[in-house]
Amino acid sequence: MGRVFPREWSEFVDLIPEDQRSGDPADAYARLLADPDAQIRSEAARRWCAWEDTHVSLAPGWTHLARYDDPSFRAVFARLVTHYWSNGCFLDDDEVLDNMHRIADIPAVLVHGRHDLSGPLETPWWLHLRWPASRLVVLDDAGHGTDTFGPEFVLAIDSMRKA
Hints:
By secondary structure, this protein is mostly helical. It is 47% helix and 7% strand.
């Protein structure tokens, strides 16, 4: 994503100690967020959330998410995300896709925003292909977790209830 947002990426990685910049940024930020110095933890949470807010969408009209203005939210969110990402989400590579046969017959609706850069459309596409009972809904005007998801979620739940 640094190729799309180079200035923001530079600001994001600038806090990582130089000798750790070629490694896993989530792991480096997990260490910064566990630093004994409260100012370092606070700045790490702020920068992590600024990066999150930057790279999740290229949807027209995308605006800053106000939740990132709350220092308590930033601290918890950043710690949680970096903990999971620095541990590979506690999954082996392709573990979910390789085990889709276990739920292949369970109906599901996958709702995804076309402009989501954080979780590209490729991910639910491959999931859908391996999940025969799923239906993929792509929102052409949405990014990552936008308000436009609400009505689609209601439609998905209603369709499951009727089934």
